[in-house]
Amino acid sequence: MTSFLWVTCSTYFLYCVCATMAFETHCFSLCKVLALSFALFGLVAVGEGRFKGFRKFDVVQDSSHGAMSEELWFIQKLDHFNGADSRVWKQRYFVNEDFYRPGGPVFLMIGGEGPANPAWMKEGTWLTYAQKLGALCFMLEHRFYGKSHPTTDLSTDNLRFLSSRQALADLAHFRTVMGESRGLTNRKWVAFGGSYPGSLATWFRLKYPHLVHASVATSAPVFATVNFPEYLEVVWRSLASENADCPVLVKKASDTLAERLKDPKTFENITKDFNLCSTLQIQSEMDSAYFLESVAGNFMDVVQYNEDNRGFEGVLGTNITIKVLCDVMGDASLGDPYTRYVAVARLMMDTYSVKCLDVSFSNYVRDMTNMSWDGPAAGGGRQWVYQTCSEFGFYQSTDSPNQPFTGFPLDYQVNQCASFYNISSKEVAEAVAQTNEYYGGYDIQSSRIVFPNGSIDPWHALGITADIAAELPAVFIKGTAHCANMYPARSQDLPQLSEARDHVFLLLQQWLK
């Protein structure tokens, strides 16, 4: 992050948004969207999140952002936990030595649920820290994302090698080999990540304390949960922080759309309203839920990345903010709340140059079960949803009454695990429990990890927002969104965002003495 979402920052995502593919057709399927969503969600440094709205179509328009960063390849083990398996593969990574001073620390940016974006090797708060502290900077792409392909395809059997535990072992092996080959073994290594990579940064320090000295874990969901209705509760509060009536109007519009989807007589008008690629057909609750979630996703995405400075990544739509959406929803001249909801969808379609919308759930299933690396969901969608089914959950359902949307309950989310990977709802619940048992959830027993989170970001509900201990501090930034502190500083940043960046630097300075 369907609601799978998750937890991609400019990973993906995520995002935070960065995909390496561009679409040539004008009729997009939302499942293709989903695929991108995680790529977009990942951006490497920040991940987590799967974009649910039309931001799924967001692609990097100008690849020159990272043109100066050379792709490098590391020989990585396929299975770190089976000594009898000697298979290896090539993992992509990047290096920036511009700021390194002999004896300085080593910064490791952790890739997430999308392609590693080399733009992060040229810009970002972590490079500001690197310049001040004389750090050598690496960025390692996450296995199964971007160009880091450990297996010949994305079959469910091969995806068993995709897990946070294998990813952490990748980081450990990379750190060990790079330390030995570059004479960096005794340097102090610091891990960085946002969203899902922020979780990995936390767990890297937790599970491999002898290899990583400190971690900056931004917008990191550290507690796995099957049902995550709190995400949409934060969306309500974030919309209300702009205008108290905004989420109420969104709720009325979503309810109206859900009711109309029950009446086939309305399908022709809905098709025209949302400019669907073909006449709407609702043959199951899954069809209805998929449509409702897709449209709701526009608000979810905008809230998650509200006013984040992601332009340097080549991301579109950064001008669409909570204020913009709430202004549309509050414009009575447009008509009733449903009509304004349609206007938001049209605005997002125009922003991402989407000519028509494919809301076919069957097409989504077809794309998500395509196992080829050339498939429409190979940009990250198939992989990330697998991780939610096999490790994390994070399903952003409408099961809470204190949120603004209708019609995509937990069952809709979990049923996809069985459809795509033959993972039952019981197995999902067991996997999530095992994740918390292994990592500890909120009960983090470690040191030298800082946890920045933004109050607008819905993911903060699963993160650390209050100090655990003196060396496990939280930095809760009021009025900011997902991974905001990771992006390059700008003049219009809120004072508390600038102060948060400075505070993290002071912690690093102290911990690296």
UniProtKB/TrEMBL annotation:
Keywords on record: Glycoprotein, Hydrolase, Protease, Signal
Keyword Cell inner membrane: no
GO molecular function, one term: serine-type exopeptidase activity
GO annotation, biological process: proteolysis
InterPro entries registered for this protein in UniProt: AB_hydrolase_fold, Peptidase_S28, Ser_carbopepase_S28_SKS
UniProt cross-references to Gene3D superfamilies, sorted A to Z: alpha/beta hydrolase, Serine carboxypeptidase S28, SKS domain
Record has Coiled coil as a keyword: no
Family from the record: Belongs to the peptidase S28 family.
Annotated protein name in UniProt: Serine protease 59, putative
Organism: Xiphophorus maculatus
Highest classification ranks of the organism: Eukaryota, Metazoa, Chordata, Craniata, Vertebrata
